Amino acid sequence: MADDTTPEMIPAETSPGSSIERRFASTTVEAGVQECFEVGADVASYPEWIESLSSVEILSTDELGRPAEVGYEAAGIGRRTSYILAYDFGDAPHRISWHLIRGDLTREIEGSYRFRDVTEDGAGPLTEVDYELGIDMTVTLPGYVKRRAEDKIMEAALRRFKRRVESLNSGS
């Protein structure tokens, strides 16, 4: 299994057509693109490896049975929060994206996982995983507090994602 180093955090930027600041993080996972995609698409198992999620409900699926709309309940800024995300698998298995339909503490959520094969000759499979997330809360937070919280969330999420994929890939 690859070492459990801290994912690389990339400076935030505002994306075209959106008013929210997006954060970026990246890591390399010792698994193939398909294995990474399968973990990202298996939203029903998220509470098993994302501690802040207390429940996930798949509200609808696409023609291939993948989640299209998903309801979440999670711990957020000192209280419970609920939100519904719409998923897009149009670039599967290389990308999964999502956006907010509605939420009680959030005005907007946009995010994605991107999976890119970076396997070198003779080596086991390696996938570069890029994680992008933008959140606009209904609660006003000072900019530095918001950025620090987002960085912490993203770093932990990507580290847990990596751990989950590699543990399933190794059979442990």
CATH evolutionary superfamily? START domain
How many structural domains can be distinguished in the coordinates? Answer: 1
CATH architecture: 2-Layer Sandwich
CATH class: Alpha Beta
Radius of gyration: 16 Å
Number of helices: 3
What is the total tally of β strands? 8
Largest sheet: 8 strands, antiparallel
Structural classification: alpha+beta
Write a brief structural summary:
Residues 1-5 have low confidence and may be disordered.
Protein described:
The protein has 172 residues and is α+β, with helices and mostly antiparallel strands. The chain has one domain (8-170): START domain (Alpha-D-Glucose-1,6-Bisphosphate, Chain A, domain 4, 2-Layer Sandwich), CATH 3.30.530. It contains 3 helices and 8 strands; from the N terminus they run ββααββββββα. The chain has helices at 33-41, 46-49, 143-170, and strands at 8-14, 21-29, 53-61, 67-76, 79-88, 95-103, 106-117, 127-137. An 8-stranded antiparallel β-sheet has the order 1-2-8-7-6-5-4-3, with helices on one face. A hairpin with a 6-residue loop joins strand 1 and strand 2 (21-29). Helix 1 (33-41) crosses helix 3. The protein is globular and about 50 Å long. The model is unreliable at 1-5 (pLDDT under 50).
SSE blueprint and pairings:
Elements: E1 8-14, E2 21-29, H1 33-41, H2 46-49, E3 53-61, E4 67-76, E5 79-88, E6 95-103, E7 106-117, E8 127-137, H3 143-170
Antiparallel strand pairs: 1-2, 2-8, 3-4, 4-5, 5-6, 6-7, 7-8
Helix pairs in contact: 1-3
